[in-house]
């Protein structure tokens, strides 16, 4: 459904809420590939999380659904907002980095954040830079977030995914997530 307003179209994006029961364990993952490392959350890494988020989502459909994901400053504001919430779960929030072979520096290329909401662990913005996908890094980040939610005493976790993101849906289903319901997210999209 599209509604018009001043050159912008209000579009509804269909999304799945997918759930995982942590009482049965955490999703399986693969070993972290050589050259990559995972770093638990700390406040001094908020900018790195925002950088990873921007590179992961800027050219993806989710940047239309959530316009802040398509801008560096929007990703930084979003990270600050997530980490300042009362329900923020630091132990379910991880950064993935890659050692650049030319400079030797660690580059942020993946991120996941966790919130606690109404007794659930809620995954926020799992993202991997497109140049580093298909290596199992998304699985590893989900496993770390699930372990963090369990450590926080949560027994269930969920996430939302746009239904057109078939690669992510396949990943979540392969890890044991179940589709629980369909939700719609309204967003203004230019030129719709």
Topology:
Blueprint: E1 2-5, E2 8-21, E3 36-40, H1 46-57, H2 62-65, H3 72-84, E4 94-99, E5 106-117, E6 120-128, H4 137-151, E7 156-162, H5 166-174, E8 178-190
Parallel strand pairs: 6-7
Antiparallel strand pairs: 1-2, 2-7, 2-8, 3-4, 4-5, 5-6
Helix pairs in contact: 1-3
- The CATH homologous superfamily corresponds to Gcn5-related N-acetyltransferase (GNAT)
Strand content: 35-45%
H/E element sequence:
EEEHHHEEEHEHE
Largest sheet: 8 strands, mixed
Total separate domains = 1
The chain-level mean pLDDT equals: 90
Low-confidence stretches: 1-7
Note the overall shape.
globular
Top CATH class: Alpha Beta
Radius of gyration over alpha carbons?
16 Å
Termini separation comes to: 11 Å
**CATH topology annotation:** Aminopeptidase
The oligomeric status of these chains comes to: single chain
Share of residues in helices: 25-40%
CATH architecture: 3-Layer(aba) Sandwich
Count of separate DSSP helical elements: 5
* Number of strand segments: 8
Structural class: alpha+beta
Keywords for this entry:
single chain; 192 residues; alpha+beta; Aminopeptidase; 8-stranded mixed sheet; 5 helices; disordered N terminus
Describe this entry's structure for a reader.
Strands 1, 2, 3, 4, 5, 6, 7 and 8 form an eight-stranded mixed β-sheet that branches. With 192 residues, the protein is of the alpha+beta class. The model is unreliable at 1-7 (pLDDT under 50). It contains five helices and eight strands. The longest helix is centred in the C-terminal third of the chain and has 15 residues, at 137-151.
């Amino acid at each position: 459904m599209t509604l018009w307003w001043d050159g912008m179209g209000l579009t509804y994006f269909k999304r799945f809420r997918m759930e995982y029961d942590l009482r049965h364990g955490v999703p399986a993952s693969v070993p972290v590939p050589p050259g990559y490392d995972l770093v638990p959350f700390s406040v001094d890494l908020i900018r790195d999380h925002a950088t990873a988020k921007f590179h992961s989502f800027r050219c993806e459909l989710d940047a239309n659904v959530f316009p802040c994901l398509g801008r560096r400053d929007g990703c930084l504001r979003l990270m600050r907002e997530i980490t300042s919430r009362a329900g923020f779960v630091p132990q379910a929030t991880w950064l993935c980095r890659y050692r650049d072979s030319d400079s030797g520096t660690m580059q942020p290329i993946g991120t996941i954040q966790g919130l606690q909401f109404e007794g659930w662990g809620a995954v926020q913005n799992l993202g991997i830079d497109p140049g580093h996908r298909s290596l199992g890094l998304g699985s590893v980040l989900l496993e770390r977030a699930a372990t963090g939610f369990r450590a926080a005493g949560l027994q269930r976790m969920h996430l939302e995914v746009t239904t057109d993101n078939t690669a992510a849906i396949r990943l979540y289903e392969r890890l044991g997530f179940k589709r629980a319901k369909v939700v719609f997210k309204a967003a203004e999209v230019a030129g719709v």
